[in-house]
Amino acid sequence: MYPFGRLIKDMILARNAPELPFLGTHVSYHRCWPQDIDGFLEMNNGRILTILDLGRTVLAKRVGLLKILRDNRWGLTMAGTSVRYRKRIKPFVRFKMVSRAVGWDHRFFYIDQSIWINGECAVQALYRSAITDKNGIVVPQRAFDHIDGDSTSPELPQWVHNWIDADNTRPWPPELPAAD
Fold it and tell me: Model-level pTM?
């Protein structure tokens, strides 16, 4: 089940937080609770992705994107992700999550998120996100038309370009293996 209680808590905490510029960094703190663990007594990888979703939602609020989405009746979807899991998150461990946009192109926004335990990175994820309406993807420029400021993306880091290029080599739709 989606952690609505955590989302409400994070949104309440963020209501008094200062607004962020579009490329600002949102930092939040969390704990691994028993409902987050799997059979290996660590935070389940799916739950980690859900926790990262909370960070992106509050980041979107703090940069003013949620208001733009609501005002225009737009949605926000994830169009791809790459995740590195490097350290187990054990029950009751407190961790820091860092969420930030690293840039955008003609269709997508790229969000970098990481989870830190005592100064050591446990998880890092790169997300490709799109704003959508009833006709499909809304180009980022349309969102920036509602924000005061420069809509020019910073140069995406080389590792982000590499991921985009590698992902573009994947066939779509994927091949469906023959049934046994």
Answer: 0.92
